[in-house]
Amino acid sequence: MSRFEIQAIGVIRSALVELEEAPRQGDEGGYEAWLEFSPEVAQALVGIQVGDALIVLTWLHQAQRDVLQVHPRGRLDAALMGVFATRSPDRPNPIGLHEVSVLEIDGQRLRVAPLEAIDGTPIVDLKPVLKAVESR
Amino acid sequence: MSRFEIQAIGVIRSALVELEEAPRQGDEGGYEAWLEFSPEVAQALVGIQVGDALIVLTWLHQAQRDVLQVHPRGRLDAALMGVFATRSPDRPNPIGLHEVSVLEIDGQRLRVAPLEAIDGTPIVDLKPVLKAVESR
């Protein structure tokens, strides 16, 4: 199959630094975090406003890419399930999807919540939630 | 910034073959399509059922990666907007998000709808829509 090169466009800055402390999803106790974008992509942020609902796409750099099945939500008594039927970070291409709201904009930095990804996680894309941007 | 290698895990097979014919979003006249997965990731599909709501992540291989601003929805009378504030396929990392329902399962192939991506588009990840899988 084909291979492609993906490049980080920014990084997550969060008080959440240990993977073990991370909630499984942002709405299960997600933190506020800053999305810090590279100057090279600053022009791509134009039009984003406080209150916007966005989807942050991350590269879950600590994930295991050779895992194809997991016990859902880490429960060892549950049957093994394919990672594509779960939100496990361990998967062939560990892309994380995080739906957040924009709380503050400071140049190339966006303060958002809730976000369960740990400090240092690379950002690879940012998109509006479709319902909120029918006119875009 | 860091670079990562992303690998196609499958491909979209659709009657939609020309980019010019593609609707902008799946719910604007999206097609039925088959998701054909590589045998190497077959185990990762275990647990997916007909009727499931899934998010297909694709690599929009015909996108332009050096575009940072666009006229929203191609309307030249609209002000330029950063691609991160739009769903433009042209963006630094052209990852497509497509919310679909599973209509049929045939081995390593899933028939889904609606899907606006063209025939031959590489698939890079597959996840459940969160609302539907609280127990996973």
So what's the overall shape of chain A? globular
Going across the biggest sheet of chain A, name each strand in turn.
2-3-8-7-4-9
**Contiguous helical run count of chain A:** 0
**Helical proportion of chain A?**
under 10%
Distance between the termini of chain A: 34 Å
Summing up helix and strand content along with how strands pair, one would put the structural category of chain A as mainly beta
**Unreliable residue stretches of chain A:** 132-136
Mean pLDDT over the full residue set of chain A: 90
- The count of strands of chain A amounts to 9
Query: Gyration radius of chain A, to the nearest Å?
Result: 16 Å
Brief summary:
By secondary structure, chain A is mainly beta. In chain A, 0% of the residues lie in helices and 40% in strands.
Tell me what you see in this structure.
Two copies of one chain form a homodimer. By secondary structure, chain A is an all-beta fold. In chain A, 0% of the residues lie in helices and 40% in strands. Chain A has strands spanning 3-7, 10-14, 31-37, 53-59, 69-70, 81-82, 95-106, 109-115, 122-128. A six-stranded antiparallel beta barrel of chain A has the order 2-3-8-7-4-9. Chain A has a two-stranded antiparallel ribbon with strand order 5-6. Chain A is globular. Chain A starts with a strand and ends in an 8-residue tail after the last strand. Mean pLDDT of chain A is 90; it is low at 132-136. Chains A and B meet through strand 1, strand 4, strand 6 and strand 9 of A and strand 1, strand 4, strand 6 and strand 9 of B.
